[in-house]
Amino acid sequence: MPGPDKETDLTERIEAFLSDLKRGGSGTGPLRGSAETARETTALLRRITAQARWSSAGDLMEIIRKEGRRMIAAQPSETTVGNMVRRVLKIIREEYARSRGSSEETDQQESLHKLLTSGGLSEENFRQHFSALKANVIEAINELLTELEGTTDNISMQALEHIHSNEVIMTIGRSRTVEAFLKDAARKRKFHVIVAECAPFCQGHEMATSLSRAEIETTVIADAAIFAVMSRVNKVIIGTQTVLANGGLRAVNGTHTLALAAKHHSTPLIVCAPMFKLSPQFPNEEDTFHKFVSPHEVLPFTEGEILSKVNVHCPVFDYVPPELITLFISNIGGHAPSYIYRLMSELYHPEDHEL
Amino acid sequence: MWIFAALVFPAQRKWSSIVNMADSGVTDGPEKKNDIERAKNEGKDLSKEEKQRLRKEKKHQKKSKEKKDEKAPQETPSAVPAPAPLPVPASESPVPADKPAKSKAELKAERRARQEAERASKQNKKGEVGQQVATGKTKAPQSELQPVVKRLPEHIQADNPDVLKKLAKKLERQQTPGYNATTKAKIPLRSDYGRKVSLFSHLHQYSRKAPLTQQLSIPSTVIHPAIVRLGLQYSHGIVAGSNARSVALLHAFKQVIRDYSTPPNEELSRDLVNKLKPYISFLNQCRPLSASMGNAIKYIKKEISNIPSHCKEEEAKSKLVNCIECYINEKIILAAKAIAKYSIEKISDGDVILIYGCSSLVNHILCEALEKRRKFRVIVVDSRPRLEGREALRRLVQRGISCTYVLISAVPYILPEVSKVFLGAHALLANGYVMSRVGTSQIALVAKAFNVPVLVCCETYKFCERVQTDSFVSNELDDPDDLIVTRKGKTHLEDWQQVDSLGLLNLVYDVTPPDFVDLVITDLGMIPCTSVPVVLRVKSVDQ
């Protein structure tokens, strides 16, 4: 077994991925979409499963947790990495439980009775060795990868259910999911799209050119005009960076204003978010929630002396509370924000919330 | 009087046959002048007066000699019965010439009343009574009850080809009398630029790269050079902000008045107003007039028409220049001081104040508060594409106020730190809505959601009688190319004109509903947003 070579090869790949993550999230909009990050993370985890040395499920989980922590530390704002790690951990638990023969139901039910009666049972050490575990886990991860590949298409397929003709739809910034969603609807229906440009990075411009090439009537407006034109908008469809555990969003700068304006005019706010963006974090708007980038995007260095006398902030993300959101559209269908916590319990195991 | 009446009747019939829809039965001689005086004094809307003037101009050019002949014989009889000292249209003449004027007035009033009855059925009775009684200057009780038949302003009818044709003709007509078609001196018509968003097709959209002055000949004989310069400054944004624009306009008008000389056989009070009209059309084309400028122009026109005819030219001119300076001093400078005094009561130590864009009034308030030794810090919010907040930032930092600077999309992030929001206004509308720079309503909305008080500072001369509920019906479209930006060497929107389905929208103003605004600070005191029509009424009674 060419163990050492494999190992060095593996560590090389992990290091390459980490440095990519560090570079990629420089705040000027994702150089790679979240879907790509998710795919690459999952592929890397599969490789770790295949090539690393482990004998029991517990070992594997330890390895993955360790690598996962390093990956999250490389780019804390890129939550899909952590989400994928948790998904894989959940897969391992499931496969282990299946190999042991215990039915999956008892493991997943969190009834009050179970909590009382099985106080000590939750201490599974995952120490038993199953030879078929590796193959099963890798197969399950492959299924996960297939699911990831189809998320955008699954979401776009629901487009015609939500968009009718002659609508005016508003969106902000650039989201590949929303782009695919709107383009899919545009094949059959005619509607207008208003794109808020989302300063200072102005990703809305790219979105607008891309949509207009698909023959959708697009208008670009400045961020300041969001409330002014909202009275004519029928729906607001946005993408997001992360869906938080309480149903809120961590989305691009300017989304909170958009959501407030939509609420004021009673315009429905629809969020197109694939399941891998769902993160078990709660919003704490302190240190870890916000990410800032260089203030020269806001006040360039050409302004001269006043730069030293002024504080300039350039946050990248905005928190949107769940009360302002009407609907989540994900690859498994549509949900209300109040249902998100339930989905999370299906995707992740509670012990993995803190890696 | 009987002879006079006999002379009057045939003349009336002749003129009324020409003037088919005479809303005020424009005849000639002193009747016309009385009519105009009454129209002005009763605070009639500008449209009727303008119509009269236009018709008069037409008649001037067509039948100037005839009119002079007719003037002479009729002036003498008017001088005979009334101890009026003048044969020329005088603003004060209705008072002494009351008695003979009354009969004509009654006839005219009846005709006018009949015509208004056609137009607006309900309020005729009260208006009629008001018209017959008030030949003087009392206009307050009737101004609200008279049917307000306003003409829609031209700048919000850009999609109506008839209106555009009328505007082109009007611009041709507004030549300085004496310069006819031979010199080809007329005010050019500015054409729209780029594809307009369909929601805003009723508004004009001009390009900054094609200013109106390119189409003017050099030297421009129609337009005073101070006005040309002003127009250029407006269209390029060199002079921006409603106070600055009004003050610049008034200074330019002062220059125009100083350089003005009454042509022979003309009356200063009428001719100067006619002179100003092409200038106003020109400025309107360079950049649509703001509400404050509109009010200032109304004031000037009123002052000019109130010049007594016995005034010598020099005296009249210096009087007008004085009036303008008084207006600027009272309505802008002193008002700012009063507003600062009221606002400083609302600023306490330790406050974090949020301001948006560059409002000269808000900047003034903050500087005054600093001088009164209040301790506070300021957060300046700015927005693309104008980025006016940087100017405010520079001014405040220069005075030593500690500032933070963010873009408007970061307002929900920074708002938990803020204790008050101070906003400036471009105009306050009669239904309580605040018209201001685009983005103001957004800030007020977010502040309301976070329970932060919003205070709007506005001088009373910016109050206007228009009503508006959304930002679409009346707005200004700026150059759409301003939205284009080059980042990292890529300009995504460069060829937006080539792509049919892509449009850029650069709005200038928006309206903030009154429920977002907690207080309006004016020079009359601190009022709620909904008291604007009360202030307007009080103002019109005073004047």
Spatial arrangement of strands, main beta sheet of chain A? 3-2-1-4-7-10-11
Q: Estimate the mean pLDDT confidence of chain A.
A: 86
Work out the count of structural domains of chain A: 2
Q: Which structural category do the helix and sheet elements of chain B fall into? A: alpha/beta
> How many β-strand runs of chain B?
11
Radius of gyration of chain A: 22 Å
Strand content of chain A: 5-15%
- Termini gap of chain B: 34 Å
Organism (chain B): Betta splendens
GO cellular component, one term (chain B): cytosol
InterPro entries (chain B): IF-2B-related, IF_2B-like_C, NagB/RpiA_transferase-like
Subcellular location (chain B): Cytoplasm, Cytosol
Write the layout of secondary structure elements.
The complex is a heterodimer of chains A (355) and B (543).
Chain A: H1 3-24, H2 34-51, H3 57-74, H4 79-100, H5 104-108, H6 112-117, H7 133-149, H8 151-157, H9 159-162, E1 168-172, H10 176-186, E2 192-196, H11 203-213, E3 217-221, H12 226-230, E4 235-238, E5 242-243, E6 249-252, H13 255-264, E7 269-272, E8 310-312, E9 317-320, E10 327-330, E11 333-335, H14 340-347
Parallel strand pairs in A: 1-2, 1-4, 2-3, 4-7, 7-10
Antiparallel strand pairs in A: 5-6, 6-9, 10-11
Chain B: H1 2-18, H2 30-41, H3 46-79, H4 98-119, H5 124-133, H6 140-143, H7 161-173, H8 225-235, H9 242-259, H10 268-286, H11 291-305, H12 313-346, E1 351-356, H13 360-371, E2 376-382, H14 389-399, E3 403-407, H15 411-414, E4 420-424, E5 427-428, E6 434-437, H16 440-449, E7 454-457, E8 502-505, E9 509-512, E10 519-522, E11 525-527, H17 532-542
Parallel strand pairs in B: 1-2, 1-4, 2-3, 4-7, 7-10
Antiparallel strand pairs in B: 5-6, 6-9, 10-11
